[in-house]
Write a structure and sequence with these properties.
heterodimer; A: 343 residues; mainly alpha; 14 helices; 74% helix; B: 465 residues; alpha/beta; Rossmann fold; 2 domains; six-stranded parallel beta sheet; five-stranded parallel beta sheet; 13 helices; 15% strand; globular
Chain lengths: 343, 465
């Protein structure tokens, strides 16, 4: 097993290098076709996020929920599930986190934060359990169940924003009234970084790493992922493990949603997940459910996204180039894996 | 697990790639966003010769200190006159520093070439750039949850300030909270939140001002044009989101339509139908807002033959044009941008538009010379000529589809608004639920109009009070 792991790691590195080269060539072609100098663009994409403390803090606040979602997806990928419903789980987590904030605004903030995180985790887990129920009891593929529930979740968020939770005298899909500043997660000075968010994300990453690689539960999860029938014959409760991984993923997505509410947007907006779940899917596709790679890749994606924000001001180019680079990286990683015969 | 890595990931990645590439606006305007404003006669040409060497930063600090004492709501002062603009230019000429480019920026909610609100705002800033020598205009556009899901207004403002912006305009009602946050964090930078009212409500930091044009007049003219030309008596209004600004604009269009339907055409009021459908945002966000294309078609299929647009983009005129080509006779009145009729001149009755350039030139010149004064500025059109590009913030460009006879009637209507003989905010006017808006014989004051709480009685649609 160990030697195979090492071989896997080596070929993972080769694949990563191939993917990076392929993605850079592809993205350069896109840049050249829109008359943007690639070197200047890459300088912004790779280094732009570090140019000022503000940008570093924005990058951290993007990376934290992304990391949480990626951690959650690591579990479901290990169990062989494509949890495309993660977007909805983030949204429902955010909606649930809003409940204590709206109902009990006079509680002391630390208690309110704890409640918001607990509600967020519960909301996300609940939404993921619906996917698990559909998958296990009704044999509905988790991809379709998740996508369907994503629409439902964004519908619920939109209904709340335009309906019961709308601003006084308004009906705008731009969001609810911002939370009072004293219930925002505390930030460092005037920067937008709330240190609690990355700390929570890193602690959870460590827990997930231990759970997946160092516990029997993690081993069983991977066994179920490789072959549910065989795992079942060896006495592993496969259905239970699938449900557990989905619930855990949902809970982490829900915590990410609570961070979006408490520390990023400070209000509920219809697109509260802001594509975080889909970006995390790309992260996990790239790292293939190995927790150790989640941190660098999630951080890199956050760096690209933050850095590329300057594209339009500095180069007159569209910032969606970060999305092209991220997508191309995953595409070429999959291609490289396919070509190397290790699918 | 390995088995699963076959088709789904590739599909997912392809979808993401496509989504990343496809950030373009839904509708392509026909005109490029080139500056179409003519060169002003009073351009501050003397700036280059200025001997003043006060660094911009120092000037800004002084100004911050000064405004804390003079913060007051300036009424709609007479800055719409040519004389004032020229005076401003003169101030600029004496106090400007040419050592370094004066950088000013804008955060826009939509693309700069949307053929509507954002294009008009963008061209207003280009107007300023052309008239302050050595200045440089930078911007971040498409700051909305659909195009930039991870970007907040504060972040976009920070990008502009990092690039050297000493003055930032934010152009959407929704940007109010973010503008306040950024202004508190950057007390040396001056801000204008266009269409906002934080200064009026007393919530604005001293370095934030508000500017809005009195588009109510533009909308009254639009409503009148619609009522003059409609054959079915069914006018529809493509509404964005609901707030006091959008309610008062719908009401203004309705008041203009009602007046021209009853008093000019002599028809009974109950034969006029005026319906608004709100899409939920300033432009189409798939899956979040109603699709304005579909809403426009619902209007047409419901028998409406004039669509007044209240959104940032051009779906109303595009769909009216399609329906007309298919054999129906549908007219549209687009919004915001002077060139909006060019999309389909044969169905365009005209366009009420914003001309931000002169107002922005004044406030940015003031800030540059250290005399920024906080104000909530709700600026009326220049009634001597509402289409004067150097003086009037609100104008109405008549469209080719408006008949010659109706053009004359519309001019008569505009003349009455201009000389004050017609004030459509004269009571009795009541809200949808019957509560009074303006009492009989009285006329509404600015605050009553600005904070319009509901749609007026006679307008069909949601008020969200």
């Amino acid at each position: 097993m160990i030697s195979r792991d090492q071989a896997t790691r080596r070929s993972t590195l080769i694949i990563a290098a191939l993917a990076l080269v392929g993605a850079l060539i592809f993205t350069s072609l896109v840049l050249l076709s829109s008359h943007v100098p690639p070197l200047a663009a890459y300088k912004l994409i790779f280094l732009g996020a570090f140019s000022t403390p503000t940008r570093i803090s924005d990058m951290v606040m993007l990376a934290s929920p992304l990391l949480l979602c990626s951690c959650g997806l690591t579990l479901t990928f290990a169990a062989g599930l494509y949890n495309l419903g993660i977007e909805g789980q983030v949204a429902l987590g955010a909606v649930a986190a809003m409940i204590p904030l709206r109902l009990l605004p006079n509680l002391p903030p630390p208690l309110l934060w704890a409640l918001a995180f607990a509600f967020g985790a519960a909301g996300g887990a609940l939404w993921a359990m619906l996917v698990a129920g559909l998958r296990i009891k009704l044999q509905v593929n988790e991809i379709f169940a998740g996508l369907g529930l994503n629409f439902l979740a964004s519908g619920i968020a939109l209904y709340l924003v335009l309906g019961p939770w709308r601003r006084l005298g308004q009906a705008s899909s731009s969001g609810t009234e911002p939370l009072p500043a004293d219930v925002w997660l505390p930030t460092l000075g005037t920067l937008r970084v709330a240190p609690a968010a990355p700390v929570i994300a890193l602690i959870i990453l460590a827990l997930i790493w231990v759970a997946v690689t160092r516990t029997r539960w993690g081993l069983e999860l991977r066994a179920v992922g490789l072959n549910p029938q065989a795992a079942g014959r060896m006495g592993i409760p496969a259905a239970r493990r699938l449900a557990e991984s989905l619930a855990a993923c949902g809970a982490l997505a829900g915590i990410a949603g609570a961070i979006q509410i408490l520390a990023v947007f400070h209000q509920l907006i219809p697109s509260i997940s802001s594509g975080m779940g889909l970006l995390a899917l790309l992260v996990v596709l790239l790292v293939q459910a190995s927790p150790i790679w989640v941190l660098p890749i999630a951080a890199a994606f956050a760096i690209f996204t933050t850095g590329s924000l300057q594209m339009s001001v500095a180069l007159g180019a569209d910032s969606s180039i970060a999305g092209v680079l991220q997508g191309a990286l995953v595409l070429f990683a999959l291609l490289a894996r396919g070509l190397s015969g290790r699918r | 697990m390995t088995r699963a890595f076959k088709r789904w990931p590739a599909l997912l990645v392809l979808t993401t790639l496509l989504a990343a590439c496809g950030g373009a606006p839904a509708s392509k305007p026909t005109t490029a966003p080139a500056a179409t404003v003519p060169v002003a006669t009073a351009a501050p040409a003397a700036t280059a010769a200025s001997a003043a060497t006060v660094p911009a930063a120092t000037a800004a600090i002084t100004a911050t200190a000064a405004i804390t004492t003079t913060a007051a709501i300036t009424a709609t002062a007479a800055i719409t006159t040519t004389a004032t603009i020229t005076a401003t230019a003169a101030i600029t000429a004496t106090a400007a520093t040419t050592d370094k480019a004066y950088v000013f920026g804008m955060v826009l909610v939509g693309p700069i070439n949307d053929g509507g609100w954002n294009q008009a705002q963008y061209e207003g800033m280009k107007y300023v750039e052309a008239r302050i020598p050595g200045s440089k205009f930078i911007y971040v556009d498409k700051v909305n949850p659909a195009d930039r899901p991870n970007t907040k207004v504060e972040q976009a403002i920070d990008e502009l300030i990092t690039q050297g912006a000493a003055f930032v305009v934010t152009n959407s009602a929704d940007f109010g909270d973010g503008t306040t946050i950024a202004a508190k964090a950057n007390p040396k930078v001056f801000f204008i939140h266009a269409s906002g009212d934080a200064v009026l409500s007393g919530k604005a930091p001293a370095n934030v001002g508000n500017i809005m044009g009195r588009m109510e007049y533009g909308k009254m003219i639009a409503g009148c044009a619609a009522a003059l030309q409609t054959a079915t008596g069914k006018i529809s209004y493509l509404g964005p989101l609901i707030d006091s600004e959008t309610r008062r604009l719908v009401n203004a269009a309705f008041l203009g339509a009602k007046h021209c339907w009853t008093d000019v055409r002599g028809k009974p009021a109950d034969q006029l139908s005026f319906k608004v459908t709100w899409i939920g945002f300033w432009s189409n966000i798939p899956g979040v807002t109603l699709d304005p294309t579909q809403v426009a078609n619902d209007f047409i299929n419901g028998g409406s033959d004039v669509i007044i647009s209240g959104i940032d983009t051009t779906e109303a005129i595009v769909e009216a044009s399609k329906a007309t080509k298919a054999g129906k006779k549908i007219y549209a009145i687009p919004y915001d941008f002077k060139g909006a009729c060019e999309q389909a001149a044969d169905v365009c009755l005209g366009v009420p538009y914003f001309n931000w350039g002169p107002s922005y030139l004044k406030v940015i010149s003031d800030a540059k010379s250290g005399t920024f004064t906080q104000s909530w500025n709700w600026i009326a059109p220049d009634w001597t000529n509402i289409n004067n590009p150097d003086t009037s913030i609100v104008g109405f460009e008549k469209g080719a589809a408006l008949s010659t006879e109706n053009q004359a009637k519309l001019d008569e209507f505009i003349k009455k608004l201009a000389d004050g003989s017609l004030n459509l905010y004269t009571g009795p006017l009541s809200y949808q639920d019957g509560k009074p808006f303006v009492a009989a014989g009285a006329t509404a004051d600015d605050k009553t109009v600005w904070y319009t709480a509901q749609l007026l009685k006679g307008v069909e649609g949601q008020s969200a009070p």
